[in-house]
Hints:
CATH class of the domain at 38-161: Mainly Alpha
Mean pLDDT: 86
Helix content: over 70%
Low-confidence stretches: 22-37, 50-63
Strand order of the largest sheet: 1-2
CATH topology of the domain at 38-161: Serine Threonine Protein Phosphatase 5, Tetratricopeptide repeat
Amino acid sequence: MKICPYCSQLIEDNHPYCPNCNKPLISNLEKSVDKNVNLESSESDPFSFDVDEQDEIYEETIIKDDEIDRKIQEIDEVLERNEILGDPIPGSLLLEKSSLYYKKRDLPNALRNLELALRNFEEEDDLFNVAICHNEIGLMQEDTGYFDQAIYHFNRSLEILKEVNDNQKVIKVLNNLGNIYYSIKDLEHSYKFYQEALDISKQENLIYEEVKTSSNLVEVLYLLKDYDRIKRILARNFEFFEQEEDGYGIIATKIKYGKLYYYIGTDYDLASEELKMALQLIERVDNSLSVFIRAKLEWECYLYLGRINLMWNNLDFAENYFVKSLEAVRIFEIGENINEGQVIENLAELYNTKGETEKSNEYYNLSCEIYYKFGNNKKCAQIKIKISENYLNIDDKSTAIKILHEALDIYENLRYTKELADIHDKLGDIYISKRSSDIALEHYEKARVYYFELEDEDSLRIIEGKIKSLQND
């Protein structure tokens, strides 16, 4: 018997997690990670399933550019010869060529060849490869922020794969749909697709797909605050990854435990401990990891450690973690991406805490540009409100008003009534401080209409008091 370091209860020596508090233990963990374990990412990437269903480790797929160029040249020679002879162009060669361009991080050429392959397979009525092309195009469109197009291609792939009854690949595409809806914070659709993938995995007894899907589902459950279900999923997944000697899964689950305790918000020390343990495990297996896989594992560790240290007012530590997180994101992502926006926003909040208003606004604007590019207009509006508050803090009311009107325009397009009411209320207060009572009254009256529509009696009472006060002056 041994003692759980978290709840101090006696437990069996061989338990990978505590049955009393559901927290993961590190018994045999380092031994598992030290073995020749599977350190391949289980996340979806373009060409994550191909005709031969060969899973490749990044070390094997990210090869030198000159070798890639040589292979592309060889394919081009075959394609040119076929064109001269009038022979059909094999779609499989175009798929391979697209894969090579993707390895070079050349998305435009990768996408162009995928679209050519898709047309070839459609002409040949090769449904299976048509489905593959739609899935891969969807992943690349997601990479570049074209979410609507990505969703269209994932749905086309899903329709075909369901038609040919390939449930294993159906699960992968459902996860891709869950991932993309999670990225745009459409939790209802994200949850729906993850749950459907989970149900099929259980029906087909596909254990590994079930574990990977439930691991994805956890990201939605954080935001839904379903912490009990998260604990059950992570405990089960952790045990599975240890049994399978899956190093990537072990480390990823430790990271998810760290995020869990961060979101619960009652024990940031424990959250920090889990995230640091994940970083230690990454360090232990450093020689087995490519820089891309390592960066994928590290970026959230650093992000959440930065957030925790920011709350603890350890500003230098927080800044160091955020910078490391940003560096990691830029290693494994292609171009600007929504994760980069998230890290930059946290840096903006850090500089705001340090009183560096100009630098804070600079980073807020950078993050806003990224969120706008990826269609997260709600986030843009929220950031603009933070920027306006920074300007108010340095008594630059004119700029603050301008920025608030930009946020107002976004919320009007989104039809977010509560946010519109609050901004009009705030603008009214600012104009009062500028002694512009007539303009202030206009904003208060607009806020009153929205609060009345919302049936927000408390806010309505306050705003009517402000209006009455102005009318009596």
